[in-house]
Amino acid sequence: MHDATEGGVCRGLWEIAQASDVGMKIERSRVLLPQDIKVVCECFNLNPYEVISEGTLVLTCDSNSIETLLDTFKEAGIDAAVIGEVIPAREGCYWVESNGEKTSLIPPEGDRFWDVFFNALGFKDDAISEAEKALCRELKEAVTWLEEAAVSNLIPEIGANLAYAPLDAKELGDIAAIPGRLLRFKGKVIALGEPEMGCSSYMGGTLLAVREHFPEARCVINLYNNEKIRSACKKLNYRVAHMPVPADYRQSDTDYYRDLNLVLSDCESLPDIIEIPDRINLERLILVLGKNLGELVSRVITLSNKVEEMK
Length: 311
Description:
Blueprint (H helix, E strand, L loop, with lengths): L1 E2 L4 H13 L2 E5 L7 H9 L13 E2 L7 H10 L8 E4 L5 E4 L5 E3 L7 H9 L9 H20 L12 E3 L11 E2 L4 E4 L2 E4 L4 E2 L3 H13 L5 E6 L2 H9 L4 E3 L10 H13 L7 E4 L8 E6 L2 H17 L2
Parallel strand pairs: 2-5, 13-14
Antiparallel strand pairs: 1-3, 2-4, 5-6, 7-12, 8-11, 9-10, 12-15, 14-15
Helix pairs in contact: 5-9, 6-8, 7-9
């Protein structure tokens, strides 16, 4: 099973084939395409099979299980369809078009959804203050440092976001972040969008919660979490605070902020790292904190380099 996010159904299918060393024969006409999605894609000249499709699951199974799965999905109110079959790797990956023609099934070089999204919303809000514009410029410079430092080994599948607050930040609208996140693409870090005020409820809310305990905290970024990264943090003597594993591995937003506040209440000083544990349907992450952007960026780059050294 694989989620069809960046690159859509096309990339999701291709990644399954590559990971499993198999081929794919997919009938394009059998892929479910909601009418509203079709209309929007036609309006912006997008290929609906090659743009981000969050919420879509690509699943392979034994042919004997197909009817049971389809019946189960139907009972649950989930649209599903059989769109093709797994074939030997030597036969390759290809679409079967409605006229019977075969075309290669290869992932797009980039997801054009983001180009359209940010061009469509590319207006500038002249109402923001000079101080807020300066905050966004500083954040953009920090993002550029991370892009140039090639810290892609720390970027999680969901993408990272970097939130930055002025000293007097009180609410989400006071905090600058990246509206489209930082993503890992071909070994590089790419920012999807220019910094904006109040655009990241998760990282912005996290930073506000941290500042209730440590007002000197001004920035936070969420990064990948695995055994090697945790080991690197230990070798670097980073101060790490550990959030508890939630009951049944399920964590609502309310649970998240409750646990975060409990952990911070036990800290005598601002931690360098907060470790977020395993949760169902949520990626395991770490939060890197900083009193300024220079400190945070340096910490991230140092961590990335240490992880590379440990390979």
